[in-house]
Amino acid sequence: MEPRFNEFMQAIGEPLPHWRGAQAPGREPLIGSYCRLEAVDVERHAEDLYAAYSQAKDPRDWTYLVAGPFDSLDAYREYLTRIAGLTDPLHYAVIDLASGAALGTLSLMRIDPANGVIEVGCITFSPLLKQTRIASEAIFLLMKYAFEDLGYRRFEWKCDTLNAPSRAAALRFGFSFEGIFRQAIVYRGRNRDTAWFSIIDPEWPALRAGFMQWLAASNFDAHGQQLERLADLIARQRASAAKSGS
Question: Which CATH topology does 25-245 take?
Answer without folding.
Answer: Aminopeptidase (3.40.630)
